[in-house]
Amino acid sequence: MGDIHVQGLKRRREEDGGKEREKKKGKRDLKDGRGELGQKEKLKEGAPGKGRSHGKSDSPRQSKAKTARVGVKAVLAEDGKVEEDRKGGCDHDRREEKGGRVKEEDHAQKGEDELQPGRAENGVGWAEGAMPEGPRASPGGEGEETEGGKKHGWAEKAAKRQKEKGQERKGEETKKKKREGGKVRHEKPPRFESLKEEPEVEKTEEGERRGGGKGVKEEEGGEPESGGDGGIKEEREGSGLGKSESVESDEKVKVENGLEDEKDTKTKAKGAKPAKRRKAKEENAREEKSKKASEKLEKEGPAQKRKTTEEGDKKKSKKTKTGENEKEKKKKEEEDKWKWWEEEKTEDKVKWKQLEHKGPYFAPLYEPLPDNVKFYYDGQPMKLSLATEEIATFYAKMLDHEYTTKEIFQNNFFRDWKEEMTEKEQEIIQSLDKCDFKEIHKYFVDKNEARKALPKEEKQKLKEETDKIQEEYGYCILDGHREKIGNFKTEPPGLFRGRGNHPKMGMLKKRIMPEDVIINCSKDSQIPVPPEGHKWKEVRCDNTVTWLASWTENIQNSLKYIMLNPSSKLKGEKDWQKYEVARRLKGVVDKIRSQYRGDWKSREMKTRQRAVALYFIDKLALRAGNEKEEGETADTVGCCSLRVEHIKLYPELDGQEHMVEFDFLGKDSIRYYNKVPVEKPVFKNLKLFMQNKDPGDDLFDRLSTGSLNSYLQDLMPGLSAKVFRTYNASITLQEQLKALTNPEDNVAAKLLAYNRANRAVAVLCNHQRATPKTFEKSMQALQAKVRVAGAVEKKKKLLEKIKEQLEKLNVQVTDKEENKQIALGTSKLNYLDPRISVAWCKKFGVPIEKIYNKTQREKFAWAIDMADEDFEF
DNA sequence: TAGCAGACTTAGTATCGTGCAC
DNA sequence: GTGCACGATACTAAGTCTGCTA
Hints:
Elements: H1 21-34, H2 37-44, H3 60-71, H4 91-96, H5 108-114, H6 117-120, E1 144-146, E2 149-151, H7 153-165, H8 172-183, H9 190-197, H10 205-210, H11 213-222, H12 232-237, H13 244-270, H14 274-300, H15 310-321, H16 323-336, E3 355-356, E4 375-377, E5 380-382, H17 386-397, H18 407-420, H19 423-428, E6 435-436, H20 438-452, H21 456-473, E7 475-478, E8 481-484, E9 494-495, E10 508-509, E11 518-520, E12 538-540, E13 549-552, E14 559-562, H22 569-599, H23 605-620, E15 647-653, E16 656-665, E17 671-677, H24 680-690, H25 705-715, H26 721-740, H27 747-764, H28 775-794, H29 800-818, H30 824-830, H31 834-844, H32 854-859, H33 861-866
Parallel strand pairs: 11-12
Antiparallel strand pairs: 1-2, 3-7, 4-5, 4-6, 7-8, 9-10, 11-13, 13-14, 15-16, 16-17
Helix pairs in contact: 1-2, 1-3, 5-24, 13-14, 17-18, 17-20, 22-23, 22-26, 23-26, 26-27, 27-29, 27-30, 28-29
This protein binds a DNA duplex (22 and 22 nucleotides) through residues 59, 61-62, 65, 463, 486-487, 489, 491, 496-499, 502, 545-547, 550, 556, 558-561, 563, 571, 574-575, 578, 623-626, 628, 633-634, 636, 638, 666-670, 705-706, 709, 720-722, 767-770, 772, 774, 777-778, 781, 823, 825-826, 829-831, 853-855.
């Protein structure tokens, strides 16, 4: 895939930049039609009431929509008789032109001349008189060199602005009100409330385990004892949750639908054709199996009541210790493996017919600090209430982390912490600077050390306990098959660790209680039992979704789910489907490419922007770039949300024409830095899109991911922007493997070829990682080994085996160096059709274990089973 | 039809556990 | 036997995209 430009990527997670929001807000308001020049200047001075956050009259999408609506009238005068630059661009571009000379004339300039955006828009977006005086330079200028590359002016400015802005929390009030509005019922989870008042707690064994023991007492005062089964019936009877009515009707409908589906399938199967009959047979078998599995789960009894005796545990552990049993177990597991890919696919909407599980495993309760471990305020020891102390420990544990040095983190933490303090504590604790968490920090460091230093037996015991929990809560029954759950534990309380410059970092992530959790399971299954004294928020039966449980987290007010492991049928099937869509794209991609090339000359600005954006998505594997709510997350962008400040145009650079320099923060605030030559029309269009815009303005102001995806959907069913990433990743792997593999090489050399192909994809997709802490050291050690082996060879004492070893080591060195900052895992797991790798292994005699570890082999079991050496993506 | 919520995938980092060198 | 390094796994943040609603 020589057509994809991947050079020049450098890593840098933005630490101090990306805080352009205020500036950007002002600019966008201008695009909304609110911004006349005078207003813009006021905005620059930070005049109140002009930024989008004030009054929230327009969400990002709203602003964009307004501009786009006006934009429909902005039609380019030129019809596109343009001579395209046949030399420009890369291999990829040339391939598009292999049909021969394309007769066109220079289009873009005409377009630009005839459509001065500012004029056509009549002041909307590009205010009159706001034309740049000369060629618009990059907002940041050259910037200074930093570790990750150039530190750009926009980042610096943004950081400064953010600092000036202080730590005001925009939109927080609105959000809070929204939360109070009813969606999140527990503004303060009962746990925290009562902890303040009741430091001494009675803990039941079960409650301790499931995070509910403390709650028994809490509930006493507030809510009536519910009996704690939290089942459907209980919800219907009204549990004081205030939602039971709608819950009931919703649930009813869903449950009934589920039954109808089942009935339908059976009726249809009766007089069906062979395939249908086979399906019916399979279903019967599944039902049988499901019954058995269900019985098995039932035998184990409700989670909360189950108590395994120590004796039993010992027996179990002894048994599993024997190698023979291990082998047997493995064999059995192998036999039990569900080859769902050999079964006929079911209809898409219904995800399961039977779903049974034990609910989430709750994070352990807080254990108070020993009396000798103290918190100090202003140099004086201070006894904190339990809730306050617990939150203090969250901060103390992170003391040696960079997070705690950040002002936003500190401010968010302190504000949330104060909210949870008693009145008296609030009076005393006025400044975070005067808080001394060192002793608490040390306590946890020591505790951690002690845990590591435990004798082998103790460690083994702990592991067995963990395994037991995994066995009990980590699996579910899905359509008669035991499936592994991906994340069966609720997220423990702590401090939010947003990535990059996240405005909410340091905020308190509250404890998830059973009352926050919605359970999803089949109606006739054993409904999970909530911890004693607690009840679920809701129990529903929705077989159109794949999650087992969900709750709303308090930081972003978004949903979190408990879902299945990637090795499961539900995930595997979806994965397979994803690669099939990407393969279908292969068949139409040439057509799509010629279409977007044609659209570069469109009379409509919107169409041109879409065509250029699509070119970037295809050529550079950029993400779609949805609009994000400002102030809620770090300022990151993707293709559609690129701003003018994120690209620089160079008519000539490094001996190449029409160069575009990209520099922006993408997903997870990972810097995307790349210099690419583009085709002349693209270059000219970009110039046009940037005209009369400020650095903070959207580059593609007439484009949204929604409109882009609906356009793609029309071109090919199932096609969306992200499919291009999957397609380009997989096709790159396939092509690189073909180019790099030498059948005569040994396995080590072949693996190096594979890793290089994998690496090409990782670079393309900008999958980066921090250089491992031990990189230098381990590299030196490896090189020392090479030297030793080399010396032996010189003395001709080396045997063939050692030569091989040397070769292997050399390969390792190369591989390691090349892989220093590249994360191969992400592409391997998410973008590369596993059948390509499987076919390659089979073709070149490389054991599949060399490519995929156990987990990966489980995930891609379907591909390993079905792909032969001739598989072509 | 825009906006939003919900459902899902993608992603990097933290932690765990195993195997190897000494 | 011990400590270290590294791969595996766990965790959860941060994206994408679809379908519903006003």
